[in-house]
Amino acid sequence: MTPSDVTLAGISYRSYHVWQRNRDVFKRLWRAELVPPVIEPVFFILAMGLGLGAYVELEGKQDYIQFLVPGMLAIFPMFAAIGECLWGAFFRMNRQGTYHAIISTPVSVEDLTGGEILWGATRMAMSTVFILAIVAIFSPVYDLYRSPLILLVPFVALGAGITFSAVTLWYTAMAPSINSLNYFFTLFITPTFWFGGAFFPPDKLPEGIRVAAWFIPTTHLVNVYRGLVEGEPRWSHLGDLAWLAVVGAVFTYVTVAAMRRRLIT
User: Fold this and answer.
1) How many angstroms separate the CA atoms of 187 and 5, rounded?
2) I need a surface site. Which of 12, 39, 149, 258 has the fewest CB within 10 A?
3) pTM given for the model
């Protein structure tokens, strides 16, 4: 069996070359790309953790800023993956002609899709590392690093990044125009941001909304992060990881099909 025979959803080793292309572009633009993942978490900690946190009392005498850290690690890196596979992917697909140029080579649509998803996941992991560095600055004063298990967070982010990237790229492949991308914020990002457990426990929500929130990938990612940051992993977190893997696998398959329809038929 040759390397070209080994595929997953038709995705082969050639997806690495798509990932490599995006990496090389990022290396040219990294200075501009570095500002948001560094500055936004600082503002978030100051405004939400220290500002709003002064008025919030939690059970167990936990400071609100400590409660926010796992949610911040899930929410902000998610935007990095979504940005690559929404706006970035749309322009590469429809405005720059990058995708059509790539599939005119031995790289297939499946490989292109896999490479884009992997690059989105990489961006999410990179953003997670940046935020962990910011959290480390505040940690000596506010005790935000309470377990060495927090070092596992970037690895979880890489896997979760595949899920968020696949969902986002699927929508991008279906979007008829650039204006349609705004609906993704309304239908996916907004409920993910507010109901994913980043700012308050989902079990405080009304029952119907709580059930709907269970299906949001961020809910499960925040659960896992809370266990790692607080040093209290639970067996239920394996179920959270399993759900993220299922969503990622399903949307990888449907995204491959959507990209094939968009680029070939």
Assistant:
1) 38
2) 39
3) 0.93
